[in-house]
Design brief:
By secondary structure, this protein is α/β, with parallel strands linked by helices. The protein has helices at 8-17, 39-55, 82-99, 114-130, 150-160, 170-179, 202-208, 223-245, 249-252; strands at residues 20-25, 58-59, 103-108, 140-145. It has a single domain (3-243), classed as Creatininase (Rossmann fold, 3-Layer(aba) Sandwich), CATH 3.40.50.10310. The structure holds nickel (II) ion.
Length: 256
């Protein structure tokens, strides 16, 4: 269920039963010669919507821009600086908490978002405590990187071994191939060199990873793998989501 497709009164009814919101967050950045610019946002959104479908939880509009500073040397990339991303997340959550949401379950598609997201959670608590917002202590925020979920990692290792790499990975490319079969690109790519996952500035990144991949063999991706990654990510997330969203009137008290 997409939040964007509901009216305010439907959201009010939902909040009588639940306080949880799923929020997909991605990035708008290069993903090598075969991967789409929107890969991280497309993947996070697909996993979030499928999880929302399976649980009946509302899914917020996807945050399509992320912290992608080191990819700026490639056309099509746009980045929010960390402080901007923190501000965007805090402002969104502040408003959503005012409506009654208390538990924010982020499905993340991009590693560069992780540190700013965790800072945003701390910033939200600090800000609401400072202004004395009632009920602020009941807010819970969590994030899960879909590609790092245990069974997703196992599947990626089975299908691609070391070819999974760190960026423009065949697993994320496969998921977008499943979602958008009209946008599949194929080419014989030379393997990239060894990669320790470290990233610095945009120029340094492009010099070390000239075609945008980091240790990944994106050409191994197949759309049928993408369907498996989607189902696996959702089944990995289900118990995590159930524990996180557990709600009782007792826990939340009478008013927010
Ligand atoms: Ni990515």
């Amino acid at each position: 269920m997409r939040l964007a497709h509901r009216t305010w009164s439907e959201v009010a009814s939902y909040l009588e039963e639940a306080r949880v919101l799923i929020i997909p967050i991605g990035s708008t950045e290069q993903h090598g010669p075969l991967g789409l610019i929107g890969t991280d946002a497309l993947c996070a959104e697909a996993v979030a919507l499928e999880l929302g479908e399976a649980t009946g939880a509302l899914v917020a509009p996807t945050l399509n821009y992320g912290m992608a500073q080191h990819h700026l040397g490639f056309p099509g990339t746009a980045s929010l600086r960390p402080s901007t991303l923190i501000r965007v997340v805090v402002d969104c959550l502040e408003g959503l908490h005012r409506s009654g949401f208390e538990r924010f379950f982020f499905v993340n598609g991009h590693g560069g978002n992780e540190a700013p997201l965790r800072s945003a959670f701390a910033e939200l608590h600090a800000e609401l405590a400072r202004v004395g917002r009632p009920g602020a202590d009941r807010i819970r925020c969590t994030l899960h990187n879909w590609w790092q979920l245990p069974e997703v990692r196992t599947l990626a290792a089975e299908l691609y071994g070391d070819g999974e790499g760190y960026h423009a990975t065949p697993s994320e490319v496969a998921l977008t191939q499943h979602l958008l079969p009209a946008c599949i690109h194929r080419a014989d790519l030379a393997p990239t060199g060894p990669c320790d996952g470290a990233v610095h500035g945009a120029e340094d990144f492009r010099a070390r990873y000239p075609d945008g991949r980091m240790g990944s063999d994106s050409g191994l991706a197949r759309p049928e793998h993408g369907a498996r990654f989607l189902a696996t990510a959702v089944s990995d997330l289900m118990p995590l989501f159930s524990a996180f969203s557990a709600f009782s009137a007792e826990q939340t008290g009478s008013a927010t």
